[in-house]
Amino acid sequence: MGQFVFLTTTLLVVTFLVSWQGLKQQYIIDKYAFNIEKVQINKEYIRFISSGFLHVNWLHLIINMFVLFSFGSGLEARLGVLPFAIIYFSSLTGGNLLALLIHKHNPHYTSVGASGAISGLIFASIAITPNLVIFFIPGWVFGLLYVLYTIYAIRSNRTDVGHAAHLGGALIGMVAAILLFPTFVNLIPTAAILLPGLILILIMIKKPELIMVNRKDQKKALSYEDRYNLNRHEQKKEVDRILEKIAAKGMSSLSKKERELLEQYSKS
Q: Can you tell me the distance from the alpha carbon of 159 to that of 213, in angstroms, rounded to the nearest whole number?
């Protein structure tokens, strides 16, 4: 059975090692995180994939790797390496693509993490395993609750960043599984998840004002990706201040801390 979960094992090892280096060296995250400006202006499309191998803290990494092993090993053993790879990487790319569509006017939006891809694995499992049970809940009920929770989280938590991208990855994973293995699909429960999920995504893209709310008290409920995005934005503001200081007083006016921040930011 080990040979059938080669890709799951490889993803676990590579993601752990790359995330570990990213946690030690900020410039790695800056260089490979998903960023709207870098994708739109610099055409750095590798960030659609590379961001999935980075995480912003150990808890984020450990949770994602646990879920990857829990769902990925069984799914790969059942479907094979190639279908598993298609589901995983299309979910990862799809989650980031949804983020690009929603945040295309925010050049500073940045995110990292494998959550979109892993959500895709979970929903692919739901689509092709009618009797799947997740946390003592039937799989299709879990999927429907996830969509409803996404709506609640976007409104009550006053943040759409992490939840929207995860939902995008989840639904792409489900669609990929349906296209690859149509005879496995339990149609009615899958449609009960897929249709409201797709409608929600269309609303977020076309009419975001119908679901988004004010961003007051946003820091109270930020996801891992949100916190990274916010920290990156604050860092950008600080760099702008330093550049203004250089223009007014010259490089000699900078403190050691300001020089280090400027050097770190220049590597991203």
A: 8
- Most confident among 9-23, 48-62, 65-79 (mean pLDDT): 9-23
Q: Taking all residues of the chain, what is their mean pLDDT, rounded to a whole number?
A: 81
The set of residues, in sequence order, having a beta carbon less than 8 Å from that of 265 and lying 6+ positions away, is 30, 235, 236, 239
- Give the pLDDT mean for 63-76: 89
Beta-strand runs (E) in the chain: 34-35, 110-111, 133-134, 137-138
CA-wise closest residue to 144 among 101, 195, 214, 94:
195
Task: Look at residue 46 in the predicted model and tell me its pLDDT.
Answer: 95
pLDDT, average across residues 1-26: 87
Q: Which CATH superfamily includes the segment(s) 2-219?
A: Rhomboid-like (1.20.1540.10)
Cβ neighbours of residue 146 closer than 8 Å, sequence gap 6 or more: 167, 170, 193
**64: which 2 tokens?**
């994602």
The pLDDT confidence band at residue 184, using thresholds 50, 70 and 90, is confident
CB 7 within 8 A of CB 76: yes
The candidate with the shortest Cα–Cα distance to 126, out of 197, 60, 32, is 197
Q: Which DSSP string corresponds to 39-101? A: HHTT--TTHHHHGGG--SSHHHHHHHHHHHHHHHHHHHHHH-HHHHHHHHHHHHHHHHHHHHH
Who wins on pLDDT, 223 or 7?
7
Exposure string over 211-243, b if 16+ CB within 10 A, otherwise e? ebeeeeeeeeebbbbbbbbbebeebeeebeebe
| Residue that the structure tokens 């293995």 belong to | 181
How many angstroms separate the CA atoms of 86 and 224, rounded? 26
Contact 154, 160 (CB under 8 A): yes
pTM of the model: 0.75
The helix/strand count (H/E) of the chain reads as: 12, 4
